[in-house]
Design brief:
The structure is a single chain. By secondary structure, the chain is α/β, with parallel strands linked by helices. Helices cover 44% and strands 12% of the residues. The chain has a 6-stranded mixed sheet with strand order 1-3-2-4-6-5, sandwiched between helices. Strand 5 and strand 6 form a beta hairpin. Helix 1 packs antiparallel against helix 4. The radius of gyration is 16 Å and the shape is globular.
Length: 194
C-alpha cells in the first residue's frame, strides 16, 4: 500500500514542528529566568533559511527572530523579489544574551537538520563565522562573497549578505545589503516546483 504524497508531507511537517518546539523549550530552559530567549520563526521546512548573528531589542522583547523593523525590511525585500514569504525560516546564531558559543553552534546545527533548507542566507561576518563553525556534514566553508550563490553542502546553497540590522539606516549600507540579497530572486525563480 502506498502512502499519498500529501500524507508524507504532512508527517514531515508535524515532525519538524515538534522538533522545533522541543528545541525552543531547550533554549528557554538554558536561558533560565534571567535571560529572554529568541527562537526562530517561519516555516519549519522552509526552502530559505535566514541567519543573523544576534537578536535586536524588538526580537528580545517578543522572543522571536526577525520581529520588528528587520523583519519588515526582509518581507518588503522578498515581495520585491517575488519570493513566497511562507517559504522562509529565520533565526539568530545567538539565542539569548550570554549564550555559550559552542551551544549556539549545536542549536544552529539542529535547526538546519530540522528545516533542511535549500538556501541559507548568512547576514553579516559574525553570522558567517557562526555558520562555518557549525561543521555541518559534507559542508564546504562559505566564503565572504556577498551576492554570490555558493555551494554549502550537496543539497544546500549559501548566500552571504551584509548584516541587515546594520544596513537599515544608512543608504550606502542599505544598497550594499540589497545588492547582495537580490540574488535570491533568480535563485528562487529557478527552484523546481514540488
Amino acid at each position: 500500500m502506498t502512502v499519498p504524497v500529501d500524507d508524507i508531507s504532512e508527517r514531515y511537517l508535524k515532525k519538524a514542528i515538534a522538533e522545533i518546539n522541543e528545541l525552543g523549550r531547550e533554549i528557554a530552559q538554558a536561558a533560565g529566568e534571567e535571560q529572554a530567549p529568541v527562537v526562530g520563526s517561519g516555516h519549519p521546512l522552509a526552502d530559505i533559511f535566514l541567519l543573523k548573528y544576534g537578536p535586536q531589542d524588538a526580537e528580545q522583547h517578543e522572543g522571536v527572530a526577525f520581529f520588528g523593523r528587520t523583519g519588515q525590511a526582509i518581507l518588503k525585500s522578498l515581495q520585491r523579489l517575488h519570493v513566497d514569504p511562507t517559504a522562509i525560516y529565520g533565526t539568530n546564531c545567538i539565542k539569548f544574551a550570554g549564550a555559550d558559543e559552542e551551544q549556539a553552534h549545536a542549536w544552529l546545527s539542529r535547526e538546519l537538520h530540522i528545516v533542511q533548507p535549500k538556501l541559507i542566507v548568512s547576514m553579516g561576518e559574525d553570522a558567517l563565522a557562526c555558520l562555518n563553525a557549525v561543521r555541518f556534514p559534507l559542508a564546504a566553508e562559505v566564503t565572504n562573497e556577498p551576492g554570490t550563490i555558493q555551494r554549502f553542502t550537496p543539497t544546500i546553497d549559501a548566500l552571504v549578505c551584509p548584516d541587515v540590522d546594520a544596513s537599515l539606516d544608512e543608504p550606502p549600507k542599505k544598497r550594499a545589503f540589497w545588492d547582495a540579497f537580490k540574488a535570491i530572486g533568480p535563485w528562487w525563480s529557478e527552484l523546481p516546483p514540488y
